[in-house]
Amino acid sequence: MKKRYVPVIEKFRMSHRLSVLWLLCSIYISRTWFVDLREIVGWPVAAWIVTGIALIPGYFVSFMLFSLLMDRQPPIKVQRPREPITVLIAAWNEERGIRDTLRQIHMQDYDGTIEVIVVDNHSRDRTADAALAAAEEFGLSLRVMEESKPGKHHALNTGLEAVRTPYMVTLDADTLLHKDALRHIVGRMLSSPDDVCSVAGAILVRNCRDSLWTKIQEWDYFLAIASVKRLQGLYQQTLVSQGAFSLYKTGVVKAAGGWPDVIGEDIVLTWKFLHAGLKVFFEPTAVAFTTVPATFKQFAIQRSRWARGMIEGLKTVKPWEQPSVYAKYLTGVNLMMPFVDVAFTLFWIPGLVMACFGFYWIVGPLTLLVLPLTLLCYGSLYLYQKRVFRSLDLKVRQNNIGFVLFLLCYQMIMSPISVWGYVQELLRLKRVWR
């Protein structure tokens, strides 16, 4: 029996109805908690606490869960694309790793021609020489360009001027492509409507065994980031075609003026696409493995930059200026994130400490209502990701310690880091590119 096709707008409406129902139930259940908390801290702070650490997160997670349960991504129609493409790599001090990156490009199961452009962004090592040696070893068509101005956007724009193919892929110099990655990401683009200008690939962790921080991030990329990408992809408004691995229509990027002079250059560029009425898709089977920060300091620098990039996107294109109702909603969710992150930083962490001593004023049984929803959401995605891995001849690595820490501690770590990023952008502190 043929399954009935459910339009995207109906999935959007249905997910909203169910998540609003969950929100109303949460408000009803939290009345006593709010009243008791109001007597201690006053009603404005009590409203902020209840809304910021329970109601809004519960609503967002429930919307994501209901949306993902209805997600049925259409199959890739063009299985063996032959379009010529350019892989654009901005590199800075990548002498040790650039060979592996180029080797994986050489190993691609792709029928079209692949041109590679490596832009050496004023490296202090032999990145350019290592790239040329690898290209000769693997028989790659490679061009090395120099860009002396520090900043990834400068390097990407220098390379963009030399791209002559209708499609191009941006790839981080420390990111390894799965052998089917280019075939799947280009196939998705060619199977999509004409107004799709970019397809974001699926990024997973390459160095997951390096430290406890990389073990935690493995689950962040595998579950949390992938959940958000699938949600946004369902509504055809993926908010970030990440520079680490994404496919673009070259002419659209050039018409947009290339990558802007901001910290979150890929975020702002993507939001410009959406503002122009274009669509951005996500392809979960186009997989690449990237190197993530192995220390807390490196992690904090990276994620605070991501938070700044989100604010830059909101400043460039306001949610209400987006033409699509889906883009309005999804970028509007980002508008609420600073409110939630500040609430978690100021209230959840101190509340958890108080709960350990028997004071359940802030953190108690009611605040844990989000947990089963989160487990359902991640459980659903885990099963989906296992099917994706199986189709790619990959296996999900056992990492129980990382999963427990990710589930229980990750938000407590991320929120203060994000708040620091918001403060940096608010105070216009000096940008740190590296």
UniProtKB/TrEMBL annotation:
Q: Which GO terms describe its molecular function?
A: glycosyltransferase activity
Key word Transmembrane present in the record? Answer: yes
Q: Give me the segments passing through the membrane.
A: 47-70, 339-360, 366-384, 404-423
**Metal-binding keyword on record:** no
- Record-stated family: Belongs to the glycosyltransferase 2 family.
The UniProt keywords, alphabetically, are:
Glycosyltransferase, Membrane, Transferase, Transmembrane, Transmembrane helix
What is the protein named?
Glycosyltransferase family 2 protein
